[in-house]
Amino acid sequence: MLAPYFRMPFDQRFLRVVDRFLLLVKEETGFDGLVSDETGTIVRSTAAERVGQSHPGAHKIVRYEEDEYLVSAAEAAANPLAREGMSCSIAVGGRRVGIFGIDGKEETTRPLARLASVLLSNWLSELEREAAPQSAARDGTRRERVLWIHPPASPWLASIGTLRERYDLVEAGDFAQGIALARAAVPDVVLCDRDDEDASWLAGEMKADRALRAVPMVVLGDAAQRHAERSCGVGVAAPSCFGSAYLEALVDSAVRISRMKDDLRAEQESLGRMITHSARSEARLRAVVESALDGIVLLGPDRKIEGMNAAAERIFGFTQGEVAGQDFVDAFVAAGSRAAVVDAIQQRRHAAVHGASMFSGLRRGGQEFPMECSLTRLETGASAGRCAFVRDLTESRRMQVELHQAQKLEAVGQLAAGIAHEINTPIQFIGDNTQFLQDAFSGLSTFADLLGRCAEALPPESREELRRAEEQLDLAYLREQVPGTIARTLQGVQRVATIVRAMKEFAHPDQHEMVATDLNRSLQATLEVARNEYKYVAEVATELGELPLVTCHAGDLNQVFLNIIVNAAHAVGDVVKGTQEKGKISVVTRREGDHVLVSISDTGAGIPEEIRTKVYDPFFTTKGVGRGTGQGLAIARSIVGKHRGSIHFATEKGKGTTFFIRLPIEGATPGVAA
């Protein structure tokens, strides 16, 4: 018995509710549930072999005085009687009277166990409140009421004394008075000492009255049977030849029938409440299933779809009615993963739970997406089906890629910033020294001119020696070539310095807060960094309008610009490949009200119509191995979205593509940006 202070009938009613509830949990989730009493002994379980066993989770709750306890996978492996899952207390009036437990992983069973314990505690409290008045009615303080309708000279007067001692006897001299007394206070038994037509009238009146129709009626007299049969309750005839012992036996029997009817009525009411409770529990459980974030799909033994929750409809893009009766694998699994899914089901068809596996799912329209799927065996009577738990991994994969990309960019940024710093100092030395050489050579050249004019005054042998020295040094060639060489060296040094500055601006570690940024300068730095991608295939034209400073994460937007510029270079490269021609990449910026617009155009082949809806999908790429991961535009859209901006494109086959990036000048609100 679940709680010592509950009387047995109510224990049984509660346990019937528990049986129905555990069955619903099993049907909807595939998990085994149980209820143990306050000593930790299992009294109800969907795994029948566990009834009567000790419940380890309940003992932990009692020992540690906790309201719940989680049996971990390691603890379950160490104890053969334990199973991984969650247990929660069932309490009434602040007192723990039992424990509910459910087997399974923590992330799934914890909320189910908590909800179930609350529901069961509430139902048990309701049954306790209902039990109080019914128990008081049966505690012996009220005697059964017998209404005796008789004439003044009744032959049964001598036999009534014993009934008067045992029952609350109310007397009426005629039928009109009797029916009035019965309607005023419903008796347990009506005793009628008249067998004429008036007795039939009384039986008809009782039958017509809703409150009296179930009251047993005993009619005394030789012709009593035909009158008693008109009673809707139990009619008993008592011929006058029988004595008082028989009369007492008849009344006692009628009283017992009345009690049985009361019990039956109470049981019917209890059954009605139990049905209401069961319907309520089923509705609540269905609400839990419908509110689950993961998709839940119910399958028959032949893998046919029998039901699905709202999350599954959202994940796959179909309503339950559209796919009911279809094969789960054909409807929801991409062609490349179907063989693996079927093989997994066949290999583990007798296992209660299939471990989660990664497959490619299939949405409405044929779009594939990464999904995690685990299958649970459902035992529902004659047939065994499966329950598929499906999780869409698209967002998770995207976040993983973004995190990996952010970590990689941070590392590259720190490395590039360090390298730029290290290069900057020697480049300054080289530039300064080269400038010195340029100035010095200019002075030497002037001195050589002066020396040539002075040589005319020297003796012939000295002039000849000076001429031979000039020829040996090839002074004329040096004076012609060295200035240009020094100038080109200074240009190269300036070019290196420009690249170093661009690297420092592009690859600086991201700030945690948004800062006011010059997007034109960011674009110029990005073009410098990406120059090696486009310099052999495209000319770059910039039309940078006057922009205010934009509040943003500069490093993130640099990554957006870089991804689109590299894509543009690849698109142009595919068109001009094998020719001497170059394409064109155009970068334009302008202000539009409270926003700035950045457009990046290319003269590539354009985006084919059949893939235009997929270009932002993670891992989608048309590039060969080593040229793309399918993450560039997915990351770009995510970053722009976190800045409360927008990104879209216009494309024309054979003409090229333009990406438009629209950003608010004031940036995203705090906490929205990445």
- CATH fold assignment of the largest domain: Heat Shock Protein 90
Within CATH, the superfamily of the largest domain carries the name Histidine kinase-like ATPase, C-terminal domain
The CATH C-level class name of the largest domain: Alpha Beta
- For the record, the count of structural domains works out to 5
Structure description:
Strand 13 (357-362) and strand 14 (368-380) form a beta hairpin. Residues 1-10, 135-140, 224-235 and 669-674 have low confidence and may be disordered. The radius of gyration is 47 Å and the shape is rod-shaped. The protein has 20 helices and 22 strands. It has 5 domains: 8-137, GAF domain (Beta-Lactamase, 2-Layer Sandwich); 145-256, Response regulator (Rossmann fold), CATH 3.40.50; 292-392, Beta-Lactamase (2-Layer Sandwich); 397-505; 513-664, Histidine kinase-like ATPase, C-terminal domain (Heat Shock Protein 90), CATH 3.30.565.10. The protein has 674 residues and is α+β, with helices and mostly antiparallel strands. Helix 4 runs antiparallel to helix 9 (244-291) and helix 16 (475-506) packs across helix 17 (519-529). The strands form 5 sheets. It has a 5-stranded antiparallel β-sheet with strand order 2-1-5-4-3, sandwiched between helices.
